[in-house]
Amino acid sequence: MRLIAQIGDWFDRRLQLAAPIREVSEHPVPRNTASWWYVFGSAALVVFVLQLVTGILLALIYVPSGGEAWSSLQALNHDVTLGWFIRALHGWGSNFMVAIVLIHMVQVFLFGAYKFPRELTWIVGVFLLLMTLGMAFSGQVLRFDQDAYWGLGIGASIASRVPIIGPAIVKLMLGGPIIAGATLSRFFALHVFVIPGMLIGFVCVHLLMVLKLGINEWPMPGRVVKKATYTAEYHELTKKDGAPFVPYAVWKDMFFAAFILLAVAACALYFGPFGPTGRPDPTIIQTVPKPDYFFLWLYGLLSYLPPSMETPALLIGPVVVIALLVLLPFLSGEGEKSWRRRPIAVLTILLIAIILGTLTHLAGYTPWSPHMNAWSGDPVPEQFLHGRTALERQGALVFQVKQCRNCHSLGELGGQRGPALDSVAVRLTQDQLIRQVIQGGGNMPAYGKNLSPAETTALVAFLETLHPAGQAPARDASRDVVLGDAQEKRPSGQP
Amino acid sequence: MSNENLVSRRGFFMKMGILFNGLVATALTMPIVGYLLSSITRGRANAYLSWVPLGPLSEFPEGETRLATFRNPYVTPTDGKTADTACWVRRIAGEQLQVFAINCAHLGCPVRWFQQSSLFMCPCHGGAYYQDGSRASGPPERGLFQYPYKVQDGLVTIQAGELPTPGASASLAGKKPTCA
After folding, report:
1. Around A348, how many Cα atoms within 13 Å sit in the side-chain half-sphere?
2. Residue A138's CB: how many other CB atoms inside 10 A?
3. Which of A335, A338, B63, B81 could be A221's S-S partner, Cβ–Cβ 3.0 to 4.6 Å?
4. Residue of B39, B71, B172 to mutate, testing the A interface (most A Cβ within 10 Å of its Cβ)
């Protein structure tokens, strides 16, 4: 024991770190901040360290070359002992990190912790969030598979829309004229050197400010922040009601950090690593690219924006959002901290959560994407064929062969890009069906040139049978009046 | 020597030191920026573009649209398969062709040709195009990108080399948007 103390003394004589470390760990924090609500920041840091360690481990095997990255990922998954587990830890760690950073941000926002004097802590935090998202995107690129390849294409398409310098930005981003080896190399540099370096620096500044300014006190309704008096009030609070951070508050951080690490490991063990999906060969076009979980909402948004809105929304939207986040502490740097007295703050969080949640949910089954194999893969349900005339069955065949099914479902099978057609005859009259098929419109291509008159007649005859039993198809009353005389003369009653 | 002079002498050297470092940093910045922007500067005046063969005209029957692949004319040693590119070749009649980029004009996903309905469909956000490449429906703002082509001695060649993107379509020398 004495020897250890002597060695410790030897080092401290030279490093002189013991006193500052003791001061930092024993600094008083407001008693009620030793709460389970205050554990997310430290958890984010712990997951970041996990990412650093697993990232370095992956770099031992991974080859950042357009021609070999995919094979090296396969080797990690299948050949290298426990390579799959390290990949899984890194992948799940990334998901957990984004989630925890977002939860941490929501908590800080709802607890008013961004207000005076912690404005800069918040702003640095905003940049930490952006860097975390940058790590998530660049990490997805390093998993160099089909999703990564076409994801880069989407990124390039967005970047190209910047006025004037768009094409130059694309070449800078891709490192050349196409998505290829140079693209992967520069994303590797970003993911492994540039962004982590910046992250480490910003995390240090963030932590330094947490220590210098003190942890945000538990917000009490009615305890209003005023720049003139806040600092004195906070010191009074920590002096009167404070407790040393170690061990009073730190044990909850430690428990939660261990729990999160365990959760990451459990997910890694149970679900395994992410991908890689198919080889990044752009001549394989039978692929349905999809971004990783935390960018699914963006994928959804991009399909719902009207074409005219898309470029402005893509280019101006992020600037506005980042500006709002950075300006937030200046727009409301004083006043109430408690969420109980800030209904608009709570509603904003709920609104954003609902929007992101809904878009993510929709992107889970992409109702806007045609089902490319529905026309050849999904059968026409029997009830739509039973007891039908030859013409109507011919129409069902046209319906399948012309790939209508890729966008329209029957019996809940098929694409959801267009409306389900199970009861289309109730909604549209014969004339309207013909017009819609031939001219298209309302986001449907015109089929006039692709269907012969006979095919159109058969198709519409089939569509007219699509109505629930006991519910009559839509009829154009004026048409009956106009054609009334003619129909009377025809014994068969055919128009 | 007076005290004032001593201070100003050291101050002078410090200022010179800052100036010296500034000059060196500026001098070093030039090659660094030049290196960083080389992918842009190298591609000036369409230097990335060249004519690449797609195959004999006989491989593309009249009235049909076929998938063709080519190796990008500009490659680096680590490109691997990524330098292989696909495109759709529509032979209208004789030597009259249309060569479409595989990339959707919306966000670049690979479009697929459906012969029966004469439509190109995109699996990502549901963009659809008619057989002549014009926009049919969905989020794209314009028709499919087209490569300039030539038919020489029965061989189809196209001018390619850059990823076609919505903002960079001018540099592809393709047609103007067929559908605004």
Report:
1. 11
2. 18
3. A338
4. B39
For residue A380, the SS3 value is coil
Do B117 and A168 make contact, defined as CB atoms within 8 angstroms?
Answer: no
Q: Which helix (H) or strand (E) holds A316?
A: helix A307-331
Which residue has tokens 């390093």?
A142
ipTM for this model? 0.88
pLDDT tens per residue across span A318-372 = 999 999 999 999 999 999 999 999 999 999 999 999 999 999 999 888 888 888 8
Is residue A181 left, alpha or beta, with left meaning phi > 0 and alpha meaning psi from -120 to 50?
Answer: alpha
Q: Which residue of A has its CA nearest to B162?
A: A177
Record: contact A166-B102, CB cut-off 8 A: no
CA distances in angstroms from A409 to A22, A88, A165, A359, listed in the order given = 67, 37, 43, 21
Specify the CATH class of B49-172 in words: mainly beta
- Indicate yes or no: CB of A157 within 8 angstroms of CB of B48: no
* Residue spans per domain, chain B: 3-36, 49-172
CA angle A133, A137, A141 (to 5 degrees): 160
- For A34-84, how does the pLDDT look when each residue is reduced to its tens digit (9 = 90+)? 889 999 999 999 999 999 999 999 999 999 999 999 999 999 999 999 999
**Full set of structural domains in chain A with CATH:** 25-365 (1.20.810.10), 374-489 (1.10.760.10)
Instruction: Report residue B136 as tokens.
Output: 């049919």
The one-digit pLDDT tens for each residue of chain B (180 residues) are 455 555 688 889 999 999 999 999 999 999 999 999 999 998 887 889 999 999 999 999 999 999 999 999 999 999 999 999 999 999 999 999 999 999 999 999 999 999 988 999 998 888 899 999 999 988 888 999 999 999 999 999 999 999 999 875 543 444 443 333
Which site among A299, A369, A409 would you substitute to test the B interface, given the most B Cβ atoms closer than 10 Å to its Cβ?
Answer: A369
> Are the Cβ atoms of B141 and A303 closer than 8 angstroms?
no
Structural contact between residues A368 and A157, judged by C-beta atoms closer than 8 angstroms: no
A468 SS3 class? coil
Tokens of B12: 């002078």
What φ, ψ does residue B64 adopt, rounded to 5°? Answer: -120, 160
CA nearest to A282 within chain B: B85
Task: Give the chain A residue whose CA is nearest to the CA of B76.
Answer: A181
Question: B53 pairs with which residues across the strands?
Answer: B157
The CA-based dihedral angle spanning residues A106, A110, A113, A114, taken in that order and rounded to the nearest 10 degrees: 70
Closest to A122 (Cα-Cα) out of A209, A228, A35, A14? A209
**DSSP summary character for residue B77:** T
Facing B138 at nearest CB: one of A158, A283, A443: A443
